[in-house]
Amino acid sequence: MKVIKIPLNAGAMKKKDGIEQAPDKILEFAKDLFMTEDAHLPVFDIDDVKIDNLDFEGSLDAIYDKIKQIDSFTVLLGGDHSMTYPALKAFSEAYKEPGFIVFDAHPDLENNFEPPTHEDWLRVLIEKGLVKKENVILVGTRHMHHNETDFIKTNKLKLFTMKEVSMEGLSEVCDSIMSVARQFGALYLSIDIDVLDPAFAPGTGHTEPGGLTTRELLYFVHRLKNLKNLKMADIVEINPKKDLNDMTSKIGAKLLVELS
After folding, report:
1. Is the dihedral of CA 249, 250, 254, 260 positive or negative?
2. CA 224 to CA 189: how far, in whole Å?
3. Strand order in the sheet with 136-141
4. For the chain, how long is the longest CA-to-CA vector?
5. CATH assignment of 2-259?
6. Which residues are 100's β-sheet partners?
7. How many angstroms separate the CA atoms of 235 and 66, rounded?
8. Which of 6, 45, 50 is nearest to 24 (CA)?
9. 8 Å CB contact between 113 and 146
10. Residue 4 CA to chain centroid, in angstroms?
């Protein structure tokens, strides 16, 4: 499986200090995981994007250029969630009728800024027509700005809030997601680690109580990886400098191995 390290920290923003260490940290702990839970031996072909965190726009362009070259299943290791903007832009140009599932405590639809930040990247993708709004599925959301709730309602985005996941149950929600996702021409899966409750993943910039457990997220991953149209995934927003006993980095490693 191809793995690409993308140590983006969104223009060296102070609140993101340390997030650029995540790709190497995740891979460090992945070496300790010998097999997947299905007894599959993970083999990684590791590459990276040369990031200049003092040149945000240039870094986004470098990510786009790298993703344009990919033609096999790949996991991207971030870094700031804004990296998904150029990655998905390139992905959408490579496949017909692409779809997108994002696990995130926040919908990242706040404003239309360019270059987009980690709070805006998905809105910019939708409003520029780089991804069809009907092909976007948001999962685990539990903290939204009123701009985002208005955008979701106006555009009728598919949203499974954390409350809905809790009330309806993992299996039922996952069935609904997969019934839509299997129809996409190609599927991109994005995992912002703050979809997890901070009790499990404290090492991230925006900790939001009431999230998924690690086991619940793995349930989704184990089922979604069986979709034949899954072509790319990313794991973002892990910050080793804010972590506790490397718990969050180890979860990133676990997710990476289970996606293989």
Report:
1. positive
2. 9
3. 45-48, 2-5, 74-77, 230-236, 186-192, 98-103, 136-141, 158-161
4. 46
5. 3.40.800.10
6. 136, 188
7. 17
8. 6
9. no
10. 13
Number of residues in the chain: 260
In the chain, domain spans: 2-259
Residue tagged 């990886």 (tokens): 225
pLDDT in tens, the chain (260 residues): 999 999 999 754 566 789 999 999 999 999 999 899 999 989 999 999 999 998 999 999 999 999 999 999 999 999 999 999 999 999 999 999 999 999 999 987 777 777 777 778 888 889 998 889 999 999 999 988 888 888 888 989 999 999 999 999 999 999 999 999 999 999 999 999 999 999 999 999 889 999 999 999 999 999 999 999 999 999 999 999 999 999 999 999 999 999 99
What token pair was written down for 208? 């939001």
